[in-house]
Amino acid sequence: MKSKPNIRCMFAGGNTPDGFVNYFGEILEANTNRIFIIKGGPGVGKSTFMKKIGQDLLDRGYDVEYFYCSSDPHSLDAVAVPDLKVAIMDGTAPHVMDPRYPGAVEEIIYFGDYWNDDVLVANREYIIDCTNRIKDLFNTAYSQLKEARVAYDEWKGYVKSCVDRAEYQRQADLLIRKVFKRFDVLGKDGRARHYFACAITPSGIKDYTDTLLKPGMDVYPVYGGPGSGAKELLSRVAHIAEWQGFFTERSHCPIEPQDLDMVIIPELNAAVINIWEPFRSAVPEGHGINLGEGIDLSACLNEANLDEERRRALSGAHERFLELLDQAISNIAQAKAVHDQLESYYISAMDFEKIEQVRQRIVQRMLKYGKGR
């Protein structure tokens, strides 16, 4: 049992130009013992329930992973305990989760068993109005993020036209050789786990990368924004690691959720991380990491390829992207404010004493999976 357990934080889902994108199926990466899926409305105590369970397991020396909510970064979507191979998660919209192996692996905890229907029925009109208002605000925010990506793609295109591909390839090869000091194939299938290390939230951009980098880890920063080839390089790192048989953790970009902004290779104790504003301005400090010599992809840009008109267009696209991103964040913040109001109707209807009894039983059931340690 560890005297000082480790806490890791991340997002299982994110607000993106493609809407809400989630990796809830990756919360436990393999060989799951038990997953508890909580069903219930807003304000019924799901996040507090999970936070208390996480603290109970930390107090007993277990490493804990907290998956925060991108729509409310103070709330949890899930808690996982890798050593016990157990997790508990919120299975309500927008990340609806249902059991794949009911009873054998997953089970549902329904908090609706602990609320007073009469209180909720009395507030029926307010609950419906708030729910619909939240949906409208998120639809607006996602439309603004789609517009932001149009500006982003324009910005990206101008930068891409400036890349000296020969120099880029030389720099990329140098970094690859630093990360993979030996190109040994392990003779096993490479596996991957996906999540968001940073997300677009009501409070702006929230990044939990600092909790994911272990002391002693070799961290290689890649400085480069849209069009610089940074995400292409991260994809290359991930594929080489997979080909060699390594397990990787892959953090996805909130603006291009199909692409990566960080790759961690635990067996090499190494991470390659994209640094670009406004999402990540610097490598996290103070965690005893070994900051390796990364690359600055601005050195691969030949800005002479842009005439004055295209320079102005690039700057304009960049500004539009930031403006639309801010507008989307504002609408997500408004949605959270309405969600807080919605929660108040449910809080008044809940029997939290009974929920606390359920929590204590769940903790004891989780601990049974650690008896062989």
UniProtKB/TrEMBL annotation:
**What range(s) does the Nephrocystin 3-like N-terminal domain occupy?**
28-73
At the top level of its lineage, which domain of life is listed? Bacteria
Q: Which UniProt keywords apply?
A: Repeat
Q: What is this protein called?
A: Nephrocystin 3-like N-terminal domain-containing protein
Q: Which organism is it from?
A: Caldicoprobacter faecalis
